[in-house]
Design brief:
Oligomer: single chain
Shape: globular
Helix content: over 70%
Order of helices and strands: HHHHHHHHH
Strand content: under 5%
Structural class: mainly alpha
Number of strands: 0
Number of domains: 1
Number of helices: 9
Length: about 250
């Protein structure tokens, strides 16, 4: 166990520089698209989050199958599925949401605001125009807050995880760059933050967002690709070297 923990710590240290670069690309994406509507940011999140899940499942299941040498599909599927869904949700959704809350950039709840306005104006009448505006705002609010892809887009995210597991099971030697995983994860986290951000993106907010992206990507991605499958491998004599994001699974 001590050998595994030392190896994992070494991997986290080796991946930190590229993760910082990835976080900078996420900040660049947010600056370039800061004036887009949140629905567009939500659609981009719907693209990159399932992509992250697929790559995470592929990396996790491949590493486990190659090192463990198991031929039991169910075992590979369990490790690959939970290693990707759990970690990608933490990286792309949960940690960015907490970051948004700490930074205070989250979108306000319009519904509560309008309820307050109605309470102060008992004589106000609801017109078709007001109803349409309220409907648009209600739809708009669907895209803010903590977004759990494997529940809300279960028909996209879960199949993406299973596809990654299938590829890993039948083609575990598929070359896969960890760098691609890091970048896709960074962009998914960035668009989760962007679709929830209402405050102006100031220099201080940018620094905070960079820190959130760095943590949200480094820990979960390395845990998914490296640490998670290692804990299911019986032998610790031949722990895989994965340092350097240019490496591939071979």
């Amino acid at each position: 166990m001590k050998k595994r923990l030392i190896a994992i710590a070494s991997e986290l240290k080796a991946h930190a520089p590229f993760t910082a670069f990835g976080a900078l690309t996420g900040i660049a994406c947010m600056l370039l698209l800061r004036n887009t509507d949140r629905t567009t940011a939500y659609r981009l999140f719907q693209l990159f989050h399932p992509g992250h899940v697929l790559l995470s499942a592929l990396a996790t299941a491949s590493l486990f199958k190659l090192r463990q040498g198991t031929k039991h599909f169910l075992t590979v599927a369990i490790v690959g599925y939970f290693g990707s869904i759990g970690v990608a949700t933490m990286s792309d959704c949960v940690l960015p949401f907490f970051g948004e809350s700490i930074l205070g950039v989250a979108v306000p709840v319009h519904g509560g605001m309008h309820e307050g306005e109605t309470a102060h104006d008992p004589d106000s009448e609801t017109t078709p125009k007001h109803s349409e505006q309220a409907s648009d705002e209600a739809h708009h609010d669907d895209h803010h807050g903590l977004h759990l892809g494997f529940i809300e887009e279960w028909y996209i995210v879960n199949p993406a995880a299973l596809l990654g597991v299938l590829i890993a099971y039948f083609l575990p030697h598929t070359k896969f760059s960890h760098a691609g995983h890091v970048l896709v994860s960074t962009w998914a986290s960035s668009f989760h933050m962007l679709m929830n951000t209402e405050s102006a993106i100031t220099p201080v907010i940018l620094v905070g967002m960079f820190i959130v992206l760095f943590v949200a990507v480094l820990l979960p991605c390395c845990i998914s690709d490296i640490a998670f499958p290692w804990f299911f491998i019986k032998s610790s004599d031949d722990l895989p070297a994965h340092c350097g994001c240019g490496h591939s699974h071979k």
